[in-house]
C-alpha cells in the first residue's frame, strides 16, 4: 500500500498534468544554442522559466539526460540525472553526467520547483549532439586542387573555384548520417545535387594556424541506399584571398595570408539500422575540376560563367572523364579542430528594389532603400556570352552615378556571363559579400524589374533580443539604423565596415559597442567565437591587438600592415568584451577560460606603467601611430591618448577585480583592487589640478609628429568632453571629483555650442556620464539634436545605417569627406544605444546575467512622450515603457520569472504613485532624489505617476 502511495506521489510530481505548480522551463539551450552540435566535454545548459504567478522563483531544479527519447520519457535517464538540485540557477548549469562520446545524441529535459517548493511540469525535450572529439576520428585527408597559378595577369589575382566530387555506393538500412565538414578557405558542400545547410562563409575566419572550426549537418535525408555523390566548391576566402587594406597600404603580401590553395576536409558518417557504421571521407579517390565560378574573392567579388556550368557535377550519372585527381595535403598537427561555436552567417531577409532608374550607357541603378551587407540574386535572360556586370555602392553621386570611391581597393564587382537559356537564369554569388544600398547593372538588354534583382541580407544569425520604439520619428529611425549597422557588421566577426577593403575585427570598435549590441541581439554564441579569435591574437608581450583575427608574418608582425599592433582604447577589448559577456549572460566560464590571458595583459600594462601607476604623456611612442588611435575621429580638441590610456588602465583593473571575485580568485582580486586604487591616486595627482580639472602638459608632446595625423595643429588636451566622460563612466574619480567632472563636461558642451566633440572612445560614455552626474536633460539635448555633429544630423541627411563620420554625407553639399575612409555602415557611433536602453528606457543589470535588474527610466521633455523597450535577457523578457497621458506618467514594466528588480519611479513622493491592480507593492522614497522605489519580483506592473519631473 505504502509503495503504491509513493508511486502515486512520484507520478503526481512527474506528470505535467498533475504538476502542482505552473512553473515551466522553456527555451532550453546548450552552449547558448537550441539543439546544437557541440564539442565541449562539459556543455553549459540554460533555460528560462514561465509562470502565471507573480514573484515566482525557482528553488530547485532537476535535469535528466538520456541517450534515447524513450529512456528520457520513461524518466530512466542513462546519462545524467541531476536529482533535485537546490538553487535558483537557470543558466550556466554545467553538465555533470557520464563522459560524452563523439557523434552522440543526447536528449535532455528539466523541471523546476517554485517559490512554494512545488514542482512544475517537465520542459519539452531538447537535445545536443556531439561532434568528433578527436581529429583522428575524421579519417579524412586534406584535399585540394591547385588553381592558384591561373588568372595572375590581371589587376587582381583571382583564381577560379575548385569543384570536388566523389561517388559512393551505400547499403540499404541507413538509420542516420552526419556530415562533418571544414575547409581552409570557404566551402559549400553538396550531396546528390543538394546544397547542405543554408549557411554562408563556412567555416568562418580564425587564425588558421592555430584553430579551425567545422560544421556538422544531419544529412540523413540527403543520402540514400545505392549510388550517391558528395561534392564541394571551394573559395580562397580569408585563408587564401585578399584581406583588409594590404593592397591599399602597399604591403609586400596582399593575399594568401595563411595559404594559397583552398582545401577541404570532410567526413560523412553513415549509421545503419544493424548498428554498422561506415565513414566516407575526403581522400585520394576524390576528383576535381574547375567550373563556372571563374573568380571568387570576399573583397573583390565573383565572376560566374554560366556557359561553363558543369551540369550534374554533384549528381550521379555524370561523366567525369576529364576530372583530375585531387592532391592530398598534410595536416598541421598542432592546429585545433573544433565545432563552430558561433552563429554562422545566413540570409536574414530578401529585399525588393525600391527604385530602378536608367543610367548612362544602358546601365541601370537599383535602389534597395536600405544600406546592408549581403549579395544579390539575379534573374535574367539574354544571349549566350553576354556579361551582366554588377557594381555596388552605398550612395549615389549627386548626378546619379554610383559612388564607389569609398570602397578603396575592394573591387566589389560581380559578373554573370549568360548561358543563353530559353528560360530565365538565376544566379547569386556564393563566397563574396558587399556593403551596399545601390547596385549598378550593366550589360542587360532590357529594363530590369523588381523581379530581375533581389537583395539578400547576410549576417551572423544572432537571435534578436531587443526592441525599442518611441513617439519620436527621428529616434525610431536612429534605432533602426543602429540595428541595421550591427546586422551588417556582425559578420562572423565584429567588423568595422562591410564595404571597403577593410572589414576587420577592429577591437576598439568592438569594445565600445559590445554593450549596445547586447540589447539588440543575443550575441553570446557570436562572442564565444570572437573572444577566442581575440585571445588567439594576443601578442607575446600580453597586449591584445587592434584587430582580430590578425594574420601574422613569420616575424610575428601583422601581415596586413606590419606596423599594426596594439593601441590604448583598442587592446582593452580583451578585458572589456569578456566582462560584458559576464555581465549580460552571467558567464564565468569565459572569465575562467581567458583569465591567464587577461592577467598577462594586466602585467603588460603594469610593467609599462611602472612605478608611475599610470601612463604619462608620450607613454606609447613605440606604436604606430604614436600614442595609438586615441579618440579616433573626434571633432574637437584632441584628448591626450595617454590620459585616456590611464583611465582605461584603471577600468581594466576594476573590471578584472569584479571578474576575479566572480571566479573566486581572491588573491588576484586583492591585487587588482590595490592596483585600481593606486591608478586612481596617480591619475588625480598627475592629470588633474587637484581641484578636479583635468590637464596634460602639451609641451611634452611637442609638435606631435607621428601621432594621429589630424591632431598636429591642435596638440593634446586633458580638459575635454571625452576625458571627463570616460573618467565618470569608468568610475575613476574619487567621490568629491565626480560632480566637478560632470559640471566640467556640461561646461565644455556649453562652450561648444551644446554640441558633442567626441570620437570613437568618447561617444559611448558621453550620455551615460551626463546622466550619472545629473545632466540627463543635456543628454537628451544631444540625442535629439539635428545639427552637425549629431546622430540626428545623419538621420536628416538620409542615413539608414550609422556612419563612420558625422558628416559622411550632407544633403545640400554632398560628400564632405569623399575619401577612402568614409564608411556609411560603421557601428562605433551607434554606441549611444547603450544609453537609450539603460537610461531612456531605464533597463540595466544590477547583477551579472540580469538576475537583478534596475528599472530607472529618465523621462524626456515634450520632445518624447512615449518610450517602450524590451530586452530578452538570459532569464527572459524584460520590458520597460513610459508614456505621458493627460499630465500623468504611465509606466509599464515586465520582470521575468526568477529575477528581482528595483524600480526607481520618477516621482517626488510616494503619495503621487499609484500601483495598478496590486496592493502588495511597497513603495518608499528613494535615496535618489525625486525617485520613489519599489522592489519587484516577476510579473507585469503598471505605475501611474502624477506630477512627475523631467530632467534639467
Ligand atoms: C579604421 C577602422 C576602424 C578604426 C581604425 C582605427 O580604419 O575603420 O573603425 O578602429 O581605423
Automatic annotation (TrEMBL):
Keywords (A to Z) from UniProt: Hydrolase, Signal
Domain Alpha-L-rhamnosidase concanavalin-like: 358-458
Domain of life: Bacteria
Matches recorded under InterPro entries: 6-hairpin_glycosidase_sf, 6hp_glycosidase-like_sf, Alpha_rhamnosid, Bac_rhamnosid6H, Bac_rhamnosid_C, Bac_rhamnosid_N, Ig-like_fold, Rhamnosid_concanavalin
Ranges of residues in domain Alpha-L-rhamnosidase C-terminal: 842-916
GO terms, molecular function: hydrolase activity
Cleavable signal peptide: 1-19
EC number: 3.2.1.40
Ranges of residues in domain Alpha-L-rhamnosidase six-hairpin glycosidase: 465-839
Catalytic activity of the protein: Hydrolysis of terminal non-reducing alpha-L-rhamnose residues in alpha-L-rhamnosides
Domain Bacterial alpha-L-rhamnosidase N-terminal: 174-345
Record field: transmembrane: none
Listed name of the protein: alpha-L-rhamnosidase
Protein species of origin: Niabella yanshanensis
Amino acid at each position: 500500500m505504502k509503495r503504491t502511495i509513493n508511486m502515486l506521489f512520484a507520478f503526481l510530481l512527474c506528470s505535467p498534468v498533475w504538476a502542482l505548480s505552473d512553473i515551466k522551463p522553456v527555451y532550453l539551450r546548450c552552449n547558448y544554442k537550441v539543439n546544437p552540435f557541440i564539442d565541449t566535454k562539459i556543455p553549459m545548459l540554460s533555460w528560462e522559466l514561465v509562470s502565471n504567478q507573480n514573484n515566482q522563483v525557482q528553488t530547485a531544479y532537476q535535469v535528466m539526460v538520456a541517450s534515447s527519447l524513450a529512456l528520457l520519457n520513461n524518466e530512466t535517464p542513462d546519462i545524467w540525472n541531476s536529482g533535485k538540485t537546490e538553487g535558483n540557477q537557470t543558466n550556466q548549469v554545467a553538465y555533470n553526467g557520464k563522459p560524452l562520446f563523439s557523434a552522440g545524441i543526447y536528449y535532455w529535459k528539466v523541471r523546476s520547483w517554485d517559490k512554494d517548493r512545488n514542482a512544475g511540469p517537465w520542459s519539452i525535450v531538447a537535445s545536443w549532439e556531439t561532434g568528433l572529439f578527436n581529429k583522428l576520428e575524421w579519417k579524412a585527408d586534406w584535399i585540394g586542387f591547385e588553381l592558384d597559378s591561373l588568372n595572375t595577369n590581371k589587376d587582381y589575382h583571382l583564381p577560379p573555384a575548385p569543384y570536388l566530387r566523389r561517388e559512393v555506393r551505400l547499403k540499404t538500412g541507413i538509420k542516420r548520417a552526419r556530415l562533418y565538414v571544414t575547409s581552409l578557405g570557404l566551402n559549400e558542400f553538396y550531396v546528390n545535387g543538394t546544397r547542405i545547410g543554408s549557411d554562408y562563409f563556412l567555416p568562418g575566419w580564425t587564425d588558421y594556424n592555430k584553430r579551425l572550426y567545422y560544421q556538422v549537418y544531419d544529412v540523413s535525408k540527403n543520402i540514400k541506399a545505392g549510388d550517391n555523390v558528395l561534392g564541394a566548391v571551394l573559395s580562397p576566402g580569408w585563408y587564401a584571398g585578399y584581406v583588409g587594406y594590404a593592397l591599399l597600404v602597399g604591403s609586400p603580401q596582399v593575399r594568401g595570408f595563411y595559404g594559397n590553395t583552398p582545401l577541404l576536409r570532410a567526413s560523412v558518417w553513415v549509421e545503419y539500422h544493424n548498428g554498422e557504421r561506415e565513414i566516407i571521407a575526403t581522400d585520394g579517390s576524390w576528383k576535381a575540376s574547375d567550373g563556372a565560378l571563374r573568380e571568387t574573392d570576399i573583397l573583390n567579388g565573383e565572376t560566374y560563367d554560366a556557359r561553363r556550368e558543369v551540369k550534374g557535377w554533384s549528381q550521379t550519372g555524370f561523366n567525369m572523364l576529364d576530372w583530375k585527381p585531387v592532391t592530398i595535403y598534410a595536416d598541421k598537427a598542432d592546429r585545433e579542430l573544433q565545432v563552430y561555436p558561433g552563429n554562422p552567417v545566413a540570409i536574414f531577409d530578401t529585399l525588393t528594389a525600391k527604385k530602378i532608374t536608367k543610367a548612362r550607357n544602358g546601365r541601370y541603378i537599383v535602389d534597395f532603400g536600405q544600406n546592408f551587407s549581403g549579395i544579390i540574386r539575379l534573374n535574367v535572360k539574354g544571349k549566350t556570352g553576354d556579361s551582366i556586370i554588377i557594381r555596388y555602392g552605398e550612395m549615389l553621386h549627386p548626378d546619379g552615378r554610383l559612388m564607389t570611391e569609398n570602397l578603396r581597393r575592394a573591387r566589389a564587382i560581380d559578373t554573370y556571363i549568360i548561358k543563353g537559356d530559353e528560360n530565365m537564369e538565376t544566379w547569386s554569388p556564393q563566397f563574396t559579400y558587399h556593403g551596399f544600398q545601390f547596385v549598378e547593372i550593366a550589360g542587360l538588354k532590357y529594363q530590369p524589374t523588381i523581379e530581375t534583382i533581389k537583395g539578400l541580407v547576410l549576417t551572423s544569425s544572432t537571435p534578436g533580443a531587443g526592441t525599442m520604439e518611441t513617439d519620436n520619428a527621428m529616434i525610431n529611425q536612429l534605432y533602426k539604423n543602429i540595428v541595421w549597422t550591427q546586422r551588417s557588421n556582425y559578420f562572423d566577426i565584429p567588423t568595422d565596415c562591410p564595404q571597403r577593403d577593410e572589414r576587420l575585427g577592429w577591437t576598439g570598435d568592438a569594445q565600445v559597442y559590445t554593450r549596445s549590441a547586447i540589447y539588440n541581439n543575443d550575441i553570446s554564441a557570436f562572442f564565444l567565437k570572437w573572444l577566442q579569435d581575440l585571445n588567439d591574437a594576443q601578442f607575446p608581450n600580453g597586449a591584445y591587438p587592434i584587430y582580430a583575427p590578425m594574420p601574422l608574418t613569420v616575424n610575428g608582425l601583422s601581415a596586413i600592415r606590419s606596423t599594426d599592433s596594439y593601441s590604448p582604447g583598442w587592446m582593452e577589448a580583451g578585458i572589456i568584451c569578456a566582462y560584458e559577456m559576464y555581465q549580460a549572460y552571467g558567464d564565468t566560464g569565459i572569465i575562467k577560460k581567458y583569465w591567464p590571458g587577461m592577467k598577462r595583459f594586466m602585467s603588460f600594462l603594469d610593467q609599462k606603467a611602472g612605478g608611475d601607476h599610470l601612463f604619462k604623456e608620450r607613454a606609447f611612442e613605440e606604436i604606430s601611430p604614436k600614442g595609438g588611435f586615441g579618440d579616433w575621429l573626434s571633432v574637437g580638441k584632441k584628448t591626450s591618448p595617454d590620459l585616456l590610456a590611464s583611465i582605461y588602465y584603471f577600468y581594466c583593473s576594476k573590471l578584472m577585480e569584479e571578474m576575479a571575485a566572480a571566479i573566486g580568485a581572491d588573491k588576484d582580486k586583492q591585487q587588482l583592487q590595490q592596483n585600481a586604487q593606486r591608478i586612481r591616486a596617480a591619475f588625480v595627482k598627475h592629470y588633474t589640478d587637484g581641484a578636479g580639472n583635468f590637464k596634460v602638459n602639451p609641451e611634452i608632446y611637442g609638435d606631435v609628429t607621428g601621432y594621429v595625423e589630424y591632431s598636429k595643429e591642435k596638440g593634446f588636451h586633458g580638459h575635454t568632453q571625452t576625458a571627463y566622460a570616460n573618467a565618470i563612466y569608468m568610475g575613476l574619480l574619487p567621490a568629491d571629483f565626480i560632480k566637478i567632472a560632470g559640471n566640467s563636461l556640461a561646461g565644455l558642451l556649453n562652450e561648444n555650442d551644446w554640441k558633442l566633440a567626441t570620437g570613437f572612445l568618447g561617444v559611448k560614455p558621453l550620455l551615460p556620464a551626463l546622466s550619472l552626474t545629473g545632466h540627463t536633460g543635456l543628454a537628451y539635448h544631444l540625442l535629439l539634436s539635428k545639427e552637425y555633429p549629431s546622430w540626428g544630423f545623419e538621420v536628416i541627411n538620409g542615413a539608414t545605417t550609422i556612419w563612420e563620420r558625422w558628416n559622411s554625407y550632407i544633403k545640400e553639399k554632398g560628400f564632405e569627406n569623399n575619401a577612402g575612409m568614409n564608411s556609411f555602415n560603421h557601428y562605433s557611433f551607434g554606441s549611444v544605444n547603450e544609453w537609450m536602453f539603460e537610461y531612456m528606457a531605464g533597463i540595466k543589470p544590477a547583477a551579472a546575467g540580469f538576475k537583478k535588474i534596475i528599472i530607472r527610466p529618465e523621462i524626456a521633455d515634450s520632445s518624447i512622450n512615449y518610450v517602450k523597450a524590451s530586452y530578452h535577457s538570459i532569464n527572459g523578457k524584460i520590458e520597460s515603457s513610459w508614456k505621458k497621458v493627460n499630465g500623468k506618467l504611465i509606466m509599464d514594466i515586465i520582470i521575468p520569472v526568477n529575477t528581482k528588480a528595483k524600480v526607481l519611479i520618477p516621482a517626488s513622493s510616494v503619495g503621487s504613485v499609484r500601483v495598478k491592480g496590486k496592493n502588495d507593492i511597497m513603495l518608499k522614497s528613494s535615496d535618489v532624489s525625486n525617485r520613489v522605489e519599489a522592489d519587484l519580483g516577476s510579473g507585469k506592473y503598471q505605475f501611474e505617476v502624477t506630477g512627475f519631473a523631467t530632467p534639467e
